[in-house]
Amino acid sequence: MNMAVDRSGDPLNLVRPDLLGFEGYRSARVAGGAGREWLNANEAAWPNPVDPDARLRRYPDPQPQALRERLAALYGCDAGQLLLTRGSDEAIDLLVRALCRPGGDAVVVCPPTFGMYAVCARLHGSRVLELPLVEGPGGFACALDEVATLAEASRARLVMLCSPGNPTGHLVPLEAIDALAWRLQDRAMLVVDEAYIEFAEAPSATTLLPRRRNLAVLRTLSKAHALAGLRLGSVIADPALVRVLARCQAPYPLPAPSVEQALQALEHDVLEATRARVEETVAGREALRAALGRLPGIRTVYPSSGNFLLVRFTDAAEAFDRLLGACVVVRDQRHVPGLEDALRITVGTPEQNRRVLDALAGAEAAA
């Protein structure tokens, strides 16, 4: 007697049906084989003069195990749950391509938020459904019940949450993420972008993965680890989904020098220095927020769990120009619906933060 297999909660239920059996491109490194003389990838026989150690002549390992294990230990997951990507941007793109049928499925986002969610969806031909964040006395928040209702009604395949939010700085409570993932089980994949989580002093959503298989978490070395130039991120999810995403990825996504430097950055003493810098940044953020709040001409300085502050001005154009005049470049948010009077200011060194305050104080004195 044949018994039906219970696949409830299986993230493969959410993958595009035409990709379930998709093998992707099988590169020479993946195909492998034992031997000393590698003549299977059409690589040059001699190194380039700028590469005297001949480290760059070969194609790199698509998913170097040492780096996966080091990051998995840092993020509190298994190596099989982690896929290395070219920053979070590639992870977002892979998730959209693997789960959404072009022209047939939707992605739910909560603006104002990171713009690449909508960009990747639209480039893929997926609908973008927006449910704006709700602004209250304590800052911004996601109306997660409404998010779930919209996702269910539209049969969306992906729900994208940014926590801490960019540019708002708000943090989505872990219990709320858990409840939303449970409600969307077998309906949609919930993606939590934690690019700034190190600055939040809060637990990661990766702690929910053992019981929420429709959850994916994005992490990066770009922010707290000060390695934006390496372009190295991770998507952490159920191993079955990770394998699907890997088959959708380019053959050689990670440059060998980036991998080498990332491994160095994950040594114990370097991680300790990174943690100290994060603490300095958090302290600097709170000091900057308090100082900005004392300046006239500033309407609101929102609480933030990131390494930045979202600030509303009585005259954002004047403030922006004053900062540029002091050679300080900040992120202009005036084109974003609902943030027409706002700028996003990254927390810098004490000297840079002082320059921001002096420029803005000068703006008010001139007014």
UniProtKB/TrEMBL annotation:
Positions where N6-(pyridoxal phosphate)lysine occurs in the chain: 223
| Class in the EC hierarchy, top level | transferase
Q: Spell out the reaction equation it catalyses.
A: L-histidinol phosphate + 2-oxoglutarate = 3-(imidazol-4-yl)-2-oxopropyl phosphate + L-glutamate
For this UniProt record, give its keywords in alphabetical order, as a comma-separated list.
Amino-acid biosynthesis, Aminotransferase, Histidine biosynthesis, Pyridoxal phosphate, Transferase
The record ties this protein, via InterPro entries, to:
Aminotransferase_I/II_large (IPR004839), HisP_aminotrans (IPR005861), PyrdxlP-dep_Trfase (IPR015424), PyrdxlP-dep_Trfase_major (IPR015421), PyrdxlP-dep_Trfase_small (IPR015422)
Q: Name one GO biological process term.
A: L-histidine biosynthetic process
Which intervals hold domain Aminotransferase class I/classII large?
A: 55-360
Instruction: State the CDD domains in the record.
Output: AAT_like
Q: In which pathway does it act?
A: Amino-acid biosynthesis; L-histidine biosynthesis; L-histidine from 5-phospho-alpha-D-ribose 1-diphosphate: step 7/9
Q: Which cofactor does it need?
A: pyridoxal 5'-phosphate
Q: Which EC number(s) are documented for this chain?
A: 2.6.1.9
The residues forming the signal peptide are none
Superkingdom to which the source organism belongs: Bacteria
GO terms for MF: histidinol-phosphate transaminase activity; pyridoxal phosphate binding
The record's note on quaternary structure and interaction partners says: Homodimer.
What the record says about family reads: Belongs to the class-II pyridoxal-phosphate-dependent aminotransferase family. Histidinol-phosphate aminotransferase subfamily.
Name it. Answer: Histidinol-phosphate aminotransferase
The gene it comes from is hisC
